[in-house]
Automatic annotation (TrEMBL):
MF GO annotations: glycosyltransferase activity
PANTHER family associated with the record: ACETYLGLUCOSAMINYLTRANSFERASE, EXOSTOSIN GLYCOSYLTRANSFERASE 1
Segments forming domain Glycosyl transferase: 56-252
Membrane topology category: Single-pass type II membrane protein
Protein's name according to its UniProt entry: Glycosyl transferase 64 domain-containing protein
Family: Belongs to the glycosyltransferase 47 family.
Subcellular location: Endoplasmic reticulum membrane
GO cellular component terms given for this protein: endoplasmic reticulum membrane
A Gene Ontology BP annotation from the UniProt entry: carbohydrate derivative metabolic process
Gene3D superfamilies: Spore Coat Polysaccharide Biosynthesis Protein SpsA, Chain A (3.90.550.10)
InterPro entries on file: Exostosin, GT64_dom, Nucleotide-diphossugar_trans
Organism: Anopheles maculatus
Predominant localisation class: endoplasmic reticulum
Length: 287
């Protein structure tokens, strides 16, 4: 009610009846993001528009390696540059190791894992491809995922999937990376999403939620999934890829998972913190 009254004040940004009466509603359609409705992913279909062409790849580097032809980061960048849809590549260097000698690097004033979802001014495309530095995808896989995303621009579309579940024996949420026919989370280590969600993540989410992610230095992809599912009331979309990849260090073929086994109990702890906080505040009703 206060927001409705506020928008009737002179010189205050206001939204018309279409926005107020169309899901997800005016409270999630932030006018300071854009004064053009076609810039909001959930309004594109209703307005008969399609998302803008091309995408921006954002690679989040936490380990840091030399940019030599044998490193995963080098090969990832090489695959991206061959994509017919790429607009630009941003490499966010979030490690204590020295930055490779490149002319232009986006500024990261706040050393936080949430920087990967910051609305950097260099991102000018609707589509954002979020990548971990060790993601191993070829150009065809990147282009295929982008084409799928264009049909579902309001959702997260990507490759690595996980599932959360309610564990009755522990009376808590659980988390698994097993390869099954069920998933509820698409990790942002290799996923497309609309750049508007960067704006919401940074400017709309509770400070306490962002602080939880900051303290854990993890779970930012889970929080992004929670945010998008809350806005759209829809699940993410998984696209298929090669299940195995070659371990560059040992030469063995392994399954790519999120870190080592100990990490899963750690993740479960923070999933419960995030979900409990969101449910208490009424910010999540669908996940």
């Amino acid at each position: 009610m206060l927001q409705i009254i506020r928008e009737r004040l002179p010189d205050y940004p206001h939204r018309n009846g279409l926005i107020w009466n169309t899901s997800p509603g005016a409270l999630l359609t932030i006018p300071t993001f854009s004064d053009t409705y076609r810039r909001f992913p959930f309004l594109l279909d209703k307005l008969g528009h399609t998302p803008g062409l091309n995408y921006t790849a954002v690679i989040f580097v936490q380990i840091g390696t030399q940019l030599t032809p044998n490193t995963a980061l080098y090969k990832l960048v090489k695959s991206i540059t061959k994509s017919q849809y790429i607009d630009k590549i941003l490499i966010l260097w979030a490690t204590d190791r020295s930055v490779p000698p490149k002319k232009r690097w986006p500024s990261t004033d706040r050393p936080s894992i949430s920087q990967r979802f910051y609305p950097h001014e260099q991102i000018e495309t609707d589509a954002v491809l979020s990548l971990d530095e060790d993601a191993i995808l070829n150009t065809d896989e990147l282009d295929f995922a982008y084409q799928v995303w264009r049909d579902f621009p309001d959702r997260i579309v990507g490759y690595p999937a996980r599932a959360h579940f309610w564990d009755d024996s522990k009376n808590a949420w659980g988390y698994t990376s097993k390869w099954t026919n069920y998933y509820s989370i698409v990790l942002t280590g290799a996923a497309f999403y609309h750049r508007y969600y960067n704006y919401l993540y940074t400017n709309w989410l509770s400070y306490l939620l962002l602080k939880t992610v900051q303290q854990s230095s993890n779970c930012e992809d889970i929080l992004m999934n929670l945010l998008v599912s809350h806005v759209t009331r829809k699940p993410p979309i998984k696209v298929t890829q090669r299940k195995g990849y070659k371990d560059r260090e040992s030469g063995r073929y392994v399954l790519k998972i999120v870190g080592s086994c100990w990490l899963f109990s750690f993740l479960v702890t923070y999933i419960n913190e995030l979900l409990n906080s969101l449910f208490e505040k009424g910010l999540v009703t669908h996940f």
